[in-house]
């Protein structure tokens, strides 16, 4: 017990080392949050293009080209590790030293999650009965209005749990931020370890923090799922 | 048939194929204001395809459809505007499950006709009363029975003040005890002078409410006549055979 107290003091209290973790927590949250917002926005647009072409709802050549680009994008993003994407963004795309590491991380994870979100949204849109679409069109709504007022609200509700799970995964994925020397929880913990030569507390502590966040979020998703199920009646 | 100014649909040489499959072959007919046209025929004969062509849910592969004098098969025509005037009721209702009954009914009038919320709701409530479902205004579709859903689907279309209503087997998905309540609403509508085109297997209803019965078979209108003549003196052998099976 005495040893634990000393270790705790050394790793977290002395020299205000807890700040590495606290700062890291802020970074992890903000990268995850902004990447999620960006990912939802871009993923939604990609899903609209993909499902419009899939349904044969448009004969526009422009849309077909756009759809082709989206497909390539999805293939590349989902076919390469997030880590190599992060390094490419940092060292090749934004090689200038002036750009904020946090912005690079947000963009990388945003572009990355957009690819997964797009497929979630697309399956949500495609799962809505074609009859809903026809009912909307027969009332006089345009394709876009039908999507906006009738299809996407239902699709969104259906995929909300899958979407939330995607962002829980994203939160854990941001733990590679340290590779561009951005201090997230993992990198903060690892910094403490390198200063104290004491791996147990910092690394296990960081793991515990992730675990708690994930458990809280997962519990939230389960509640959401139950709510949605009772709402559907 | 009545004079030209009353013609709502003028269907000229309408063809529709799905790939190799020719479903409609050179169909020509007119549907005039106030008519209640009932379409009957064997399953798979193209009744739905014909009906759905009238509001371009199916795009014809040949021929023309004039609605109120305008060629709606012309790609330059704004089909969305014309669809506002063509109500449609489906076999499986297709109410919007994420919206209340009232919202189902006011969505299109508010967004498309730019009606105020009060105005749209007043009209919706009036229609709900007409079909005896005013107490369901704030319910969700999943809380209604099939017959109630279909009655709502009908009044949802009526909220747009259509000039004609299309029905594709509106009672085929219903339990038998609910068929009557839906047919009653449709009879009322017909009595009120609404132009209607109805695909149905309810021969009793067709005889009573229809002004013209149309037999579609193998992609053609094989026979059409007043209900009385249609059932009493069928000419086409395929129709005779069909009637012997369904009556
Ligand atoms: N979207 C479609 N794609 C391919 N074939 C279709 C499609 N819709 C209908 N058909 C075919 O067209 C024929 C007529 O169908 P339909 O108009 O639904 O008949 P009915 O309503 O008289 O039972 C059927 O053989 C059906 O399989
Ligand atoms: Mg049919």
Task: Report on this structure.
- The complex is a heterodimer of chains A (233) and B (247).
- With 233 residues, chain A is an all-alpha fold.
- Chain A has a single domain, classed as MetI-like (MetI-like fold), CATH 1.10.3720.10.
- In chain A, 82% of the residues lie in helices and 0% in strands.
- Chain A contains nine helices and no strands.
- Chain A has helices at 2-13, 18-54, 61-79, 82-93, 101-126, 130-139, 143-173, 185-196, 200-232.
- In chain A, helix 4 crosses helix 5 (101-126).
- Chain A is elongated.
- The mean pLDDT of chain A is 91.
- Chain B contains nine helices and ten strands.
- In chain B, helix 3 (101-112) runs parallel beside helix 5 and helix 5 packs parallel to helix 6.
- In chain B, the strands form two sheets. Chain B has a six-stranded mixed β-sheet, with helices on both faces. A four-stranded antiparallel β-sheet of chain B has the order 2-1-4-5, covered by helices on one side.
- In chain B, helix 6 (176-191) links the parallel strand 7 (164-168) and strand 8.
- Chain B is an alpha/beta fold.
- Chain B is globular and about 55 Å long.
- Chain B has helices at residues 47-54, 79-83, 101-112, 117-130, 146-158, 176-191, 203-209, 227-232, 237-246, and strands spanning 7-18, 21-32, 36-40, 62-67, 70-71, 86-89, 164-168, 195-199, 212-217, 220-225.
- Chain A binds chain B through residues 129, 131-132, 134-135, 137-142, 145, 149-150, 153-154, 157, 232-233, and chain B through 55, 57, 80-81, 83-84, 86-88, 90, 92, 94-98, 107-108, 111-112, 140, 142-143, 156-157, 160.
- The structure holds adenosine-5'-diphosphate and magnesium ion (MG).
- The site of magnesium ion (MG) has 3 residues of chain B, from helix 1.
Runs of chain A in which pLDDT lies below 50 for 5 or more consecutive residues are none
Major sheet of chain A: size, sense and barrel closure? none
Helix-strand pattern of chain A: HHHHHHHHH
CATH superfamily descriptor of chain A? MetI-like
Please estimate the helix content of chain B: 25-40%
Number of strands of chain A: 0
**Which descriptor suits the 3D outline of chain A?**
elongated
User: What structural class do the secondary elements of chain A suggest?
Assistant: mainly alpha
Question: What is the percentage of strand-forming residues of chain A?
Answer: under 5%
Fold-level CATH name of chain A: MetI-like fold
- Distance between termini of chain A? 54 Å
Number of strands of chain B: 10
User: What would CATH call the class of chain A?
Assistant: Mainly Alpha
Quaternary structure state of the chains depicted: heterodimer
Number of helical regions of chain A? 9
Tally of domains of chain A: 1
The strands making up the biggest β-sheet of chain B line up spatially as 6-7-8-3-9-10
Radius of gyration of chain A, whole Å: 22 Å
Enumerate how many helices of chain B there are, as a single number.
Answer: 9
């Amino acid at each position: 017990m005495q040893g634990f107290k000393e270790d705790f003091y050394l790793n977290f209290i002395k020299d205000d080392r807890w700040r590495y973790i606290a700062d890291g927590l802020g970074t992890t949250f903000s990268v995850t949050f902004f990447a999620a917002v960006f990912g939802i926005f871009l993923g939604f647009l990609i899903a609209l293009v993909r499902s419009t072409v899939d349904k044969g709802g448009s004969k526009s050549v422009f849309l077909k080209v756009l759809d082709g680009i989206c497909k390539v994008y999805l293939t590349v993003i989902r076919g390469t590790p997030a880590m190599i994407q992060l390094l490419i963004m940092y060292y090749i795309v934004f090689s200038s030293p002036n750009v904020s590491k946090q912005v690079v991380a947000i963009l990388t994870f945003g572009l990355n999650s957009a690819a997964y979100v797009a497929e979630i949204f697309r399956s949500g849109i495609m799962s809505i009965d074609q009859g809903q679409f026809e009912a909307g069109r027969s009332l006089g709504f345009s394709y876009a209005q039908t999507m906006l007022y009738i299809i996407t609200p239902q699709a969104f509700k259906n995929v909300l749990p899958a979407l939330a799970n995607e962002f829980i995964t994203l939160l854990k994925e941001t733990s590679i931020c340290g590779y561009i020397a951005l201090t997230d929880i993992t990198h903060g913990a690892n910094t403490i370890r390198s200063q104290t030569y004491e791996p147990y507390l910092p690394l296990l502590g960081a793991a515990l923090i992730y675990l708690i966040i994930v458990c809280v979020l997962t519990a939230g998703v389960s509640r959401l799922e139950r709510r949605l199920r009772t709402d559907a009646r | 048939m009545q004079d030209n100014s009353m013609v709502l649909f003028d269907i000229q040489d309408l063809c529709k194929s799905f790939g190799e499959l020719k479903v409609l072959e050179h169909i020509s007919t007119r549907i005039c204001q106030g008519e209640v046209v009932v379409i009957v025929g064997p399953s798979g004969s193209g009744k739905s395809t014909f009906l759905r062509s009238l509001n371009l849910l199916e795009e014809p592969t040949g021929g023309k459809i004039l609605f109120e004098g305008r060629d709606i098969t012309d790609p330059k025509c704004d089909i969305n505007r014309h669809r506002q005037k063509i109500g449609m009721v489906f076999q499986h209702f297709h109410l919007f499950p994420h919206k209340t009954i009232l919202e189902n009914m006011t969505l299109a009038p508010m967004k498309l006709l730019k009606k105020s919320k009060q105005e749209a709701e007043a009209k919706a409530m009036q229609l709900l009363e007409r079909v005896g479902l005013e107490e369901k205004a704030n319910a969700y579709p999943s809380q209604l029975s099939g017959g109630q859903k279909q009655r709502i689907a009908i009044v949802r279309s009526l909220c747009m003040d259509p000039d004609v209503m299309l029905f594709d087997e509106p009672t085929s998905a219903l339990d038998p005890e609910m068929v009557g309540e839906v047919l009653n609403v449709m009879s009322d509508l017909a009595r009120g002078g609404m132009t209607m085109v109805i695909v149905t297997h309810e021969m009793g209803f067709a005889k009573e409410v229809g002004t013209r019965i149309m037999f579609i078979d193998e992609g053609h209108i094989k026979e059409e006549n007043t209900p009385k003549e249609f059932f009493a003196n069928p000419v086409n052998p395929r129709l005779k055979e069909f009637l012997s099976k369904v009556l």
